[in-house]
Amino acid sequence: MEFFRSPLQLGVAGLFVASMSLAPAASHAADERESLETLRQTTLNLIDALVEQGIFSREKAAAMIKNAEAKAQAATASAAKDKTRSGAPVRVQYVPETVKNEIREQLKQEVLAQARSERWAEPNAIPAWLDSIKWEGDIRLRYQADSFDRDNTPAASYAALANTYGATRAAGFTGMSTANASPVANNNTTENRERYRLRARLGMLAKISDEWSAGLRLSTGNTTDRVSTNQTLGQDWNKYALVVDRAYVRYDPAEWLSLSGGRIPNPFFSTELVWSENLNFEGGAASLKGSFANNSFKPFLTVGYFPIKEDNPPATHGRAMSGAQAGAQWDLSSNTRLKFGAAMYSFNNFEGQKESNTSYQNSASYGQYEYGASLRQKGNTLFRTNAPLDGATSTLWGLASRFRPVNLTASLDLAHFDPVHVVLTGDYVKNTAFDRGEIANRTQTSISDGKDYGYLYKITVGMPKLEKARDWQVAFSYRYLGSDAVVDAFTDSDFGLGGTNLKGYMLSAHYGIDRNANIGLRWYSAESIDSFSLVAGQRFAVDVLQADLNVQF
To answer: What is the pTM of this model?
Structure first.
């Protein structure tokens, strides 16, 4: 039977054999007997400890001792025969106590190191390669109540005005159902709504090596809403679909450089004024980081290119966004941290064009300038791009403005009352490509209202993260986002039920009820800045209440 499967286990047995065989030979010296007996007992105790740790079974340990004793007896008998034949005395070289202690400690550490690496004491442990994979996830239950202002313009009026003027800021309000005897608006601006919603996310981060890693996250939601992962309950008990929310590869060749590509988390320092917190980017990004003044000043530069629509001629021409941001994190003191960034984003081929009759009659690319219903929310100024000969009832809405927003963001974290933090956040954005004259020439549509800028300020008090029971956090923010300050497709979907051309405030409170479990209330109150129909006097306002139960793992 094979008892010793590793060099270290063989070393333990060898040490025991030595202690058993040397003891008789040193019987003439009492002090040497005492030292060797100590060595023998140390070896036996080490074997017992390995048994208690589950490294050896009790039966295997007994077999090891029995085998070692047999070898010791054989060695003693052989030495006695040699002494009888030669008549020469058997000499045992003296081993100093310090040397023996070093041998014991070294052997112990080597055995324990191998036990940890090979997981001898963990018979049900997962394979070691799984240690490089980190799992994370969360589930959120939500009650949501949408309360529309009683003075809101009915959705049917938006449809009539859009047909009259060929322009709108709420194409989603203009849809009409023809199933009835007369057309009926199939969107809602006046009737309150209640929903019960669920969000589930499961993510994996795999560390492939010191330089390479990969991430994957699945979530509830659908493939037509990029700014929400909610699943509304009440779908006839049908099962939910899981979508790929993130899938990317990351390369960190140096501490100061990070490259990522695929469907990646938002690489820019930002707030919900410009980018929804649920939005993930498709493309590639590079981040450069530095460190100065004893690591208290950390500048950064992030650049990226992100395809939004595939370039597939002659049917469609591609759309993309490129962006760059420079900023820094500055530890002003041990309890004061400032982070700021300046960014510019350029949206290519997003603006609409009037289609020609020739294109309508002969081109496979007809409709390429549409800002489609599956992409837009509401707020951006739109115009009808259909060719004059196109008498179809379906309107191809295109964006009136070009988009090249400049974004300034800053956050000041005050930890004077740690673990309670006070965080002050400010954000400003301006669309530097908004030009009323250029819009009129390109679209044959004159715009007298509409805004090209937006801002947000926010104060948050409490724990930065809700990780333990009784952790808490409260927040207040005010937001003003003009109609054409940013592309409405990618902004927050909760404030005013999504989009731009909205102003108002948000109040929230969260409380930890257990480790990684919390409850929260959030109240949004938003109203339109300019008319969504481009006709003065039209109004839209909505209050949104959200009550959440969150668990994380």
So the answer is: 0.77
Diameter over CA atoms, the chain: 125
Q: In the numeric block, which tokens belong to residue 191?
A: 């009737």
For 17, half-sphere exposure in the C-beta direction (CA atoms, 13 angstrom radius) is 16
DSSP reduced 3-state for 142: strand
Q: How many CB atoms lie within 10 A of CB 522?
A: 18
Q: For residue 16, give the nearest of 46, 50, 40 by alpha carbon.
A: 40
Cα 252 → chain centroid: 17
* Helix axes 30-52 and 7-25, enclosed angle (nearest 10): 150
Structure tokens at 16: 């025991």
In Å, what is the CA distance from 62 to each residue of 57, 59, 121?
9, 5, 18
Token pair recorded at residue 154: 């009915």
pLDDT of 129 reads: 67
The per-residue pLDDT for range 200-231, each reduced to its tens digit, is 999 999 999 999 999 999 999 988 899 999 99
Residue appearing with tokens 């100061």: 256
pLDDT digits (tens, 9 = 90+) for 48-95: 777 776 666 777 777 777 777 777 777 666 666 665 555 556 565 666
**354 Cβ neighbours under 8 A, 6+ residues apart:** 385, 387, 442, 443, 444
Four-point Cα dihedral 271, 277, 282, 283, nearest 10: 30
Long-range contacts of 364-373, Cβ-Cβ distance < 8 Å, separation of 24 or more:
364/314, 364/315, 365/313, 365/314, 365/315, 365/316, 365/317, 367/396, 368/315, 368/316, 368/317, 369/396, 369/398, 370/396, 370/397, 370/398, 371/397, 371/398, 371/399, 373/171, 373/172
